[in-house]
Amino acid sequence: YGGLLAAALIGGSVFAVYYFKKGKYSRTSLKRTAVGVSVLSLCVLVALGSGFLVFRDLNQYAESKDAYRDLAGYVEVPEQTASPESAPDPTEPKRDDADIVLPSVDFETLRENGPDIIGWLSLPDTVLNYPVTQTDNNEYYLNHLYDGTYNKVGCLFADYENRADFSDRNTIIYGHNMRDGSMFALLNRYDEQSYFDAHRQMYLVTPKGGYVMEIFAAFAAKPEESGSETSPWQLSWKDDGAYTTWLTAMKERSAVESDVTVTCSDKVLTLSTCTPGGTGRFLVMGKLVKVDNEI
Predict the structure, then answer these.
(1) One short Pfam family name for this protein (predicted)?
(2) Backbone angles phi, psi at 119, to 5 degrees
(3) What is the pLDDT of residues 122-135, one digit of tens each?
(4) Is 199 part of the annotated catalytic residue set?
(5) Which one of 43, 144, 199, 274 is the catalytic residue?
């Protein structure tokens, strides 16, 4: 809308200067005058319409930012004790759960504000710190906030065919790639090895426990892939062998190198958003590792 507004203003200004200042108006016929006025009127209408849409979008961005900031007040995100810029040393022993401090989430209060909230997803040291919702379709939360307020920013939501406890082999969470950098916009940065190396893990907290999402793949895909055997949005497999084949295919598609191994006993969390321009999709996939300490 911003580009359309700029084009209307610039086009109308150039036309007005050429048509009137150059003396065209005084020498032209009534018919041509009417055409000129019509063109200028159209430019003005386009500018006004585009301006309204820009204002509406900015207003919704601001409203959503305030709403999510207020909700985040019920979530305590601990400070990181280690620098996120340094990749973990694969030769070091496996982490102790006692070293993992997950966000502390007051789900009782959260659900008073948004009854469809089933979890909280966060990426340390970034703006990705949002509730995850779920309802009986994959459309509602595309343009509604967690409390049901209409807003084009929407809310992160799990696929309606997934179980709400994240116990499926592949749970999918969808979110918009917003121009202001909110929601799932930063997922597209996972095509850079340096960004992946600095942000290898996310945290998922649910009412029944917490998980570390260990990222093993990130890549672009086409919506038309949905329904195929190699679709990243696949939710079921005929047997362990088919699931293992799928996991291998996902890891091989990755734009970044990850030392995380996945087997048929693992549960996967897939984060899905639009690529810039909106025609493609970008996915970040990780295995869910249960954290046994208190959350």
Answers:
(1) Sortase
(2) -175, 175
(3) 999 999 999 999 99
(4) no
(5) 274
